[in-house]
Amino acid sequence: MWKPIKIAIKLPGDIMADDKPHIYRIYFHSHGQIYEVYAHSIYQSDLYGFVEIEDYIFGETSQSAVIDPSKEKLRTEFESVQRSFVPMHAIIRIDEVGKEGTAKITDSSGNNVTPFPMPMPGKKS
Hints:
- With about 120 residues, the chain is mainly beta.
- The chain has a domain at about 25-105.
- Helix content is about 10%, strand content about 35%.
- It has 1 helix and 6 strands; from the N terminus they run E-E-E-H-E-E-E.
- Strands 1, 2, 3, 4, 5 and 6 form a 6-stranded antiparallel sheet that branches.
- Strand 1 (about 25-30) and strand 2 form a beta hairpin.
- The longest helix is centred in the middle third of the chain and has 10 residues, at about 70-80.
- The chain is globular, with a radius of gyration of 18 Å.
- The termini are far apart.
- The relative contact order is 0.25.
């Protein structure tokens, strides 16, 4: 005889009462650079081939005189963004982490990361 199985359905962006908020570290390619961002919500988009990133985390701004330019560039680039749609093939890695780190942008030259192969336009075999 079959036993019923209880399945909890969690909608994107929802946090259950007994759960602590999840923090995700996402690495992705964009314009020849690698972005490392932190967010509370990430899921497959309704737009085919895209991943949605919501609820970005940038940490607290400090009152110190030292300003990290890559962190400030990220903060200004994403400060008014509610949701990002990143192409699935641009995602390098997604990690669930215990606490947020420093979001940053790094140049992709010299790294061992190879973008997903794309067909060359205009070439016929």
